[in-house]
Automatic annotation (TrEMBL):
GO molecular function: metallopeptidase activity
Native source species: Papio anubis (Olive baboon)
Higher taxonomy: Eukaryota, Metazoa, Chordata, Craniata, Vertebrata
Protein name (Swiss-Prot/TrEMBL): Archaelysin family metallopeptidase 2
InterPro entries to which the protein is assigned, alphabetical: Archaemetzincin (IPR052009), MetalloPept_cat_dom_sf (IPR024079)
């Protein structure tokens, strides 16, 4: 297990920006909102605590080049909501728990989290569907005998389900996923062509 901690200077370097658009947005925040944002600069903050990596972990086994907020904000491929596309749709596939009550509680928690994290966007639930309704390719993993459904097929399914006013559509499932025959599994996958993605819980 590894705990990732960053110094105050590292956080400021990663998060501060001289971009006039971002500076203007920050200056429009009220005092309380600015205090909340400034908590990100405090290494010991209760709101922005250290990240614990459990080994083996995807991040440690699949290292990626670092990206600070300025690089993220300036990315020409970054998607932003528009007045007519401000809704996040959540599509669940298969059961998310041992009982219907557990599944409903999980969806309720996830919806609340999305509303808080993506403040300003609407979060809407689509009717849950069984795996059979997706018509996705599947396989049974030999060593575990667990059902796995093909990730690319799920993205195609989501493309057909995506409403016109959607900023994005997200699918969640407790079923194992695989992107290609040579892979054991995948935790999640996205398509930036029409901005839909799924996440394996």
């Amino acid at each position: 297990m590894q705990i990732v901690r960053h110094s105050e200077q590292t956080l400021k370097t990663a998060l501060k920006s001289k971009n006039p658009v971002l500076v203007s947005q920050y200056e429009k925040l009220d005092a309380g909102e600015q205090r909340l944002m400034n908590e990100a600069f405090q290494p010991a903050s209760d709101l922005f605590g250290p990240i614990t990596l459990h080994s083996p972990d995807w991040i440690t086994s699949h290292p990626e080049a670092p990206q600070d907020f300025e690089q993220f904000f300036s990315d020409p491929y970054r998607k932003t909501p528009t007045p007519d596309k401000r809704s996040i749709y959540i599509q669940s596939i298969g059961s998310l728990g041992n009982t219907r009550l557990i599944s409903e509680e999980y969806i309720k928690w996830l919806t609340g989290y999305c509303k808080a994290y993506f403040y300003g966007l609407r979060v809407k639930l689509l009717e849950p569907v069984p795996v059979s309704a997706t018509r996705c390719s599947f396989r049974v993993k030999e060593n575990t005998q667990n059902l796995q459904i093909h990730a690319g097929d799920i993205l195609k399914f989501l493309k057909k389900k995506k409403p016109e006013n959607a900023f994005c559509i997200v699918e969640i499932t407790m079923i194992d996923l695989y992107p290609r025959d040579s892979w054991n599994f995948v935790s999640g996958q996205a398509s930036d062509r029409w901005y839909s993605f799924f996440w394996h819980c």
